[in-house]
Amino acid sequence: MSRMAAAGGLAGRVRHPQTTVRWRLTLLYGALFLVSGAVLLTVTYVLVEHAAASRPPGGLSVKSAPVQTASPPPGRVLPDRLNQALSQLPRRITQVLRSPDGQVAIRIVGAKQRLADLHQLIVESSIALAIMALISAALGWLVAGRVLRPLRTMTVAAQQISEANLHERLALEGPRDELRQLADTIDRLLARLEAAFNAQRRFVANASHELRTPLTAARALLEMVLTDPRATLETFRTTCRQVLEESEEQEQLIEALLALAQGERGIDRRASLDLSVLVAEALPAYTANAAERGLALETSLAPVRVSGDRRLVERLVANLLENALRHNVPGGRIAVRVSGRGGEGELLVANTGPAVPAEAIERLLQPFQRLGDDRVGQREGFGLGLSIVAAIAGAHDAPLHVQPGADGGLEVRVQFPVSAEQSVADGGSGERWAGEEWAQGSRVPAHAQRAVGADLQPGSDDDVDGPILTGGDPADRPLDVTGDVERAPQQR
Amino acid sequence: MRVLVVEDHPRLAATVATVLRREGMAVDVVFDGREALDRAALITYDVVVLDRDIPGVHGDEVCRSLIATGSRTGVLMLTAAGTLEDRVEGLGIGADDYLSKPFHIAELVARIRALARRSAPGLPPILAHGDLVLDSARRVVSRGGRSISLSPKEFAVLELLLSAQGAVLSTEQILQRAWDDATDPFTNTVRMTVSRLRAKLGDPPVVETVAPVGYRIGGTA
């Protein structure tokens, strides 16, 4: 309703003549024509006047009759009087011709006559100018309308595009001029909007599925036991426990959704944190579980102070560790490394696990996306972990690199900006590896890195690290780095 | 009545299956779309309860494939997206019914029954043969006004035989329609159930044995 009113108001304003570009262009054409016409006329007038003054006489001649005199011989008395009279006439407009026979011709180019001529010239030219000005204004109106027609088409098309038909495009045809460029730009904007809207819609659909399904399960459980005529106390107990488990799952989901929202909203407060201390504090919660599952947990923590929101960074670390633990294989390994170099505090979490196709990584960073197979029959999390990591990294302007591990699993590195207190001169010399074999790992050749993300960074030596997790001796093993997704913060 | 439940939330799937089995239905549970299509190709289900958001093949695709085979299977879609557009779209794909989460389990049962009745046309909700009356909605059986208490399996077998309206049903057919994968029936399971059913229904006998093929409703009831 409000949108319609706004559109109506816009249309009303656009239709008001003083404010339309077409009207202004018409006025401009008309005014320009009028001014240049007037200047032309003035110049003509000045030139004509000037020419009339310097031109040899022409025009009107008055010839007197032969001067008849009685007594004094012609040419003696009269000429004096005549001369006297003639001398009183303005010279510029008078020319006196004397013939040998005594006739005097006075040619008068009368002042009034010349003025009348010029006046007439001006009046007629002005009328012509006015007519031409009107014609040019009319032509200007037509031409402006023609030039602006694509703009009107675009306006109408754009007004009709709403949330419901975001897939429509202006699709302006014609030469590649400024208007076409504008239309193409708007089309690209619409495409981005549509993608964002679709992502939002998918997110809502997924969130509603993930929220409603456990709710349904809890309700079905309660209804099942309540309608069971043979239900025993034990049945009730079992059901209650199951409902509790469901509600715990829902709590976790809501918490994860809140974390995602928080990460996407950005950081309220930045503090200087020691990344290695944060990781060291988080690790004990996972060591027991890792040992239980026969996973080797190998850490290398160099102190590095980064700037960030403590709770969000803690959440990021926890999510990465949880993922590394959950999506692992029996007897697998988890590598956690914190290092500082080049103005960045890098957190790296790598794990062995089922192979992750490089092209699936971009998808895994989206909410509610899991690697297809681990969902059958048993539910492995909500598929929010990595999207929360991506959101938090984005909020910290921390580039996030995710790539498949050499032996399956994932290798995730987050490069936090170092806080002002951190000296960046150490260049990673503080690294100490708990696992000896990693320290001697060979470097991944630059050509082995193939970016699947939008921004491919040529792998300079500084960008590339040795293999984090390989089976056996990393130096002897062929490296199989198939993909690298880089997420610069500005992409998000 | 045999029902396939396609739902990726294991606890919800298990709960629905428990309730439906209690109602005398034979219920199979699968967790993804591909498995659902495999099962549906093997067994003719009366009703498929299909969650829309399932891994593997999407629920919409499963629904389309089920419809495309031309089977009389009724498809009841479950979905978390309960907007009008979603329901219209779901029904447009070919689903026979649509239920949005969260739902009441009693409503689900009632809708499954209604669908099963529709997929077997011409059957009234109350089946009768002589003085024997079976009300499938209320789950009651009576003979000559006297109510008879049957176990879910006995009820299911009687319902099948009455629905066949005198036609012979083989042991395999009865086994496929009244038992599911969760139970591991012995070869003589049907025979034993029928004999218990006969005993409960009393005289004169209404369930005839057609050796060696199977059983039918008949006699002079």
Q: Would you give an account of this structure?
A:
The complex is a heterodimer of chains A (492) and B (221). By secondary structure, chain A is of the alpha+beta class. Chain A is 50% helix and 12% strand. Chain A contains 12 helices and 11 strands. Chain A has a 6-stranded mixed sheet, with helices on one face. In chain A, helix 2 (21-54) packs antiparallel against helix 4, helix 6 runs parallel beside helix 11 and helix 9 packs antiparallel against helix 11 (385-395). Chain A is elongated and about 155 Å long. The two termini of chain A are 32 Å apart. Chain B is α/β, with parallel strands linked by helices and 221 residues long. Helices cover 41% and strands 23% of the residues of chain B. Chain B contains 8 helices and 12 strands. Chain B has helices at residues 10-22, 33-42, 59-68, 84-93, 105-119, 152-163, 171-178, 189-201; strands spanning 2-6, 26-30, 47-51, 74-79, 97-100, 126-129, 132-135, 140-143, 146-148, 169-170, 207-210, 214-217. In chain B, helix 2 (33-42) packs parallel to helix 3 (59-68). Chain B is elongated. The interface between A and B is medium-sized, with 28 and 25 residues.
